[in-house]
Amino acid sequence: MSSVHTLYGVAITDAIAKGDLAELKKLAAEAEAHVQQYGDVPTLLTHLKLEIAKAEARKP
Amino acid sequence: MDTSASALSPAPQEVPVRFRRMEDHHNLVPVHVVWEITLACNLKCQHCGSRAGRPRADELTTAEALDLVDQLAALGTREMTLIGGEAYLRRDWIDIVRRCRDHGMRTAIQTGARNLTDARLDQAVAAGLQGLGVSIDGLPDLHDRVRGVPGSYDQAISALRRAKVLGLDVSVNTQIGPETPAHLPDLMDRIIEAGATHWQIQLTVAMGNAVDNPDLLLQPYQLIDVMPLLARLYQEGVERGLLMIVGNNIGYFGPYERMWRGYGDESMHWTGCAAGQTTIGIEADGTIKGCPSLATSLYSAGHVRDMTVEDIWRHTERISFGRLRSVEEMWGYCRTCYYADACRAGCTWTSESLLGRRGNNPYCHHRVLDLAKHGLRERVVKVKEAPPESFAISEFALITEAIPGMEDAPPLPARDPEHVHIHPRERAAGGGTTPPRLEVCRGCDQYIWPHEETCPHCGSDVAAEAARHAEDTARRRALIEQAKRFLAGLQTAGME
């Protein structure tokens, strides 16, 4: 598979960036968007566990 | 030779129509045609290779033009670029667009966009036009000066915006001369804002009006600064939804080849000039060439009023030069280059227009970097004017000189042309051959011939570096799959 970009011709417009790097960046952006919208699950979990531990420590 | 291409390449609908598959090479399919449908033009570009302005005296009639489209469709053409001059100054251009679309060809125009009215755009969209590429060579002052018409930049940007609204694929072509690089970052911002998704970059070539204005030509040694800039903009563009397309005279095999030639697919690299192999160029009077930009005097292979396109395509010597040439016709630095048989001196148009003979191309990043290591650089000086004809070439002298301050660098070693690797090419029944495939050395990320055990560039153990790379790739792919599953799970949970 190869492509040719003839200099008097129009730019190819049905090509997209590919490869692991592009995919990793796309996935990282999606993950960041999720964190922005819903928050950081691991940090939330840490806080929940901390409060659970504190509450359990106060049990009679 | 295995011609069962389905096992080797994805199905056509999964890849851009311009991508060349194994069977295209074997069967000599003119995948992409670039057709100057008129030489009439309403700009006065100082670098115009075809010296466009007035229409040619004997441009094809409508019937001849439509018949030409039918002949190309029969040969398997999948993509058509209509150019000029200015394509829409031909009265029946809409009929030509419609006929191309009737055959299922991906169809676009490349334009300067002066007086590209809403009515013209609406008609073209109704006829099925899919893409609009606008030529923009810098910010307004530079663009208007180079294009010879005040206000042409504003019209170009306006056309991009209006075409985007109409749903066309919108792209920009930019020619690089000495003044252009400083404009590129701002120009990128502006074309992204105007809606462009693809940006083809190419060097201005010493043909026609550009010979009359040699100050518009980049000097070869300037690539040492221009290429890193382009690489930075390529990466920024990917992040911002603009894919930079490096034109056929941007190259070759330097440090950025694996990044941009295949847009991230490292198996795609420069495989040599495609003129007459998977590409056809047509002049408005029906002259057929292997590439639209080649000099008419040297590469006019025939005329559609005298012969069928198929006969010109399959049987004329001037169109088949690219299928038959070998490293033996190369000369100068390119003749002894490591990549000689894969590269064939890059873009034929660029090198032959410059030096009067194909096979040696100073506009090469690999070459510029190699020479610089040895304290050398190259520049070109015009020694002969170009005649007034369309696609006329002249001659430039190639001067190799010491880089100031690097006079003590180690000298360039003598390289034996007999040691250049020759890729065995087996001709398929259809008449074509498959270009060579190089691999990437994972020690230095440079392309190497597949037989190499020790990298000629960095000296690393090719197999050991490949194994390390395979481990890295497997880890990365596993992470990608994990991230996809995780994000898909989140999306599903969000919908419940």
Molecular structure report:
The complex is a heterodimer of chains A (60) and B (496). Chain A is mostly helical and 60 residues long. Chain A has one domain. Chain A is built from two helices and no strands. Chain A is rod-shaped and about 80 Å long. In chain B, β8 and β9 form a beta hairpin. The N and C termini of chain B lie far apart (54 Å). The N terminus of chain B is likely disordered. Chain B has three domains: 298 residues, TIM Barrel (Alpha-Beta Barrel); 106 residues, no CATH class; 40 residues, no CATH class. At the A-B interface, α1 of A face β1, β3, β4, β5 and β6 of B.
Give a brief rundown of this model.
Chain A: Pfam families: DUF1843 (PF08898). By secondary structure, chain A is mainly alpha-helical.
Helix-strand blueprint:
The complex is a heterodimer of chains A (60) and B (496).
Chain A: H1 20-38, H2 41-57
Chain B: H1 22-27, E1 32-36, H2 62-75, E2 79-83, H3 93-102, E3 106-111, H4 118-127, E4 131-135, H5 140-147, H6 152-165, E5 169-176, H7 184-194, E6 198-203, H8 209-212, H9 223-240, E7 243-246, H10 257-260, E8 279-282, E9 287-289, H11 296-299, E10 302-303, H12 309-315, H13 321-324, H14 332-335, H15 340-343, H16 348-355, H17 365-373, E11 376-384, E12 395-402, E13 439-440, E14 447-448, H18 462-495
Parallel strand pairs in B: 1-2, 1-8, 2-3, 3-4, 4-5, 5-6, 6-7
Antiparallel strand pairs in B: 8-9, 9-10, 11-12, 13-14
Helix pairs in contact in B: 2-3
